[in-house]
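Hi,

Apologies if this is the wrong queue. I'm a grad student, and the batch job for Gfo/Idh/MocA family oxidoreductase from Snuella sedimenti produced an output file that my downstream script rejects. I'm not sure whether the problem is my script or the file. Here is the sequence I used:
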Amino acid sequence: MARKIKLGIIGGGGDSLIGVLHRIASFINDNYEIVGAVFNPVWEENINFAKQIGIKTDRIYVDFDTLIEEELKLPKEERIQVCSVLTPNFLHFPMAKKLLKNGFHVICEKPMTTTFSEAKILQSVLEENNAVFAVTHTYTGYPMVRQMREMIKDGALGKIQKVDAQYYQGWLNPVIHEKEKRASTWRLNPEKAGISCCFGDIGVHAFNMIEFTTGMQIDTILADLNYLYEDNKMDIDGTALVRFNTNAKGVIRSSQVATGEENNLTIAIYGDKGGLRWEQENPNFLYVLSDDKPVQVYKPGHAYNSELSLDGTKLPPGHPEGIFDAMANIYLGVARAIRGEAYNSGEFPTVMDGVRGMSFIEKAVESHQKGNVWLKIED
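Support response: The file is valid. Your script probably expects a header line. Output copied below for reference.
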């Protein structure tokens, strides 16, 4: 078996959901070992968390800069090869940039940066350095999402006419209505989260899913956002109309105050030959729609699925796979890229997905601020 890739973790300590997700995902396919980390900026919490999860403490560093400095002192075959950046949004850009410039591969949480200009800089830095860069749009790792992509690529839907992506959560509803609570939430703080909360956090997932599954790029958007309170500087709900450079049109609906909703990401793509619909809360079912046949249901692990879908399926049919497996598929693709092995372009989102995602976020906010006007998404 190939030697395990040495992984470093930045952030994701304590009860962080993202931290658990990335750590477990990195273990699933036996490609990585965590050898160094800065889990928390508070040293006691940092070192205690490493002990709690059974990570050796000799390479648990006091801060990010020390991690890079000390790792570069080690022989190349011993040092961290790739770092997962799991910090709040405002730290993604400076950390990813410094990692790339010092010869590390990067797996970065989304949004990749807090501004489009930062995203373009990061793209340039990556081009100057021979590195692998992945943005963890986790849902692209689900086998049935990958099946959706391959079926559309193979022409199963014909000419795409309509797209509809929805991402509804309700977690902000208990927070947003109390001034003190909303003022103390980092995702509602522009200095830490960037210019957008809802669209920056989950709306960008819907945007990415549309482009990932259809293989088409959204050309222009018109957005209408909701801030709910005058003192709240961040969107917590919104809708964007989208147009492609064909006659296809669509809508992105996103909310974090949809009371009672948990993690309701749904995408539907309609062509002149048929339609496909997938729901994140029921990820093992891909619904195939047509005018002249009953609804078909595709499920993971069956021979009728595409090679990309089957490659991301670890269990026999009938055994549910979920979010950990989806993230693990992204880590698997990154491992193949780091080792120089052949891989499918759909195995992990790249820096270009991050760049387009930041353009989407900024243009959505700008469109709203300018009175709901059409604006072009930039590369």
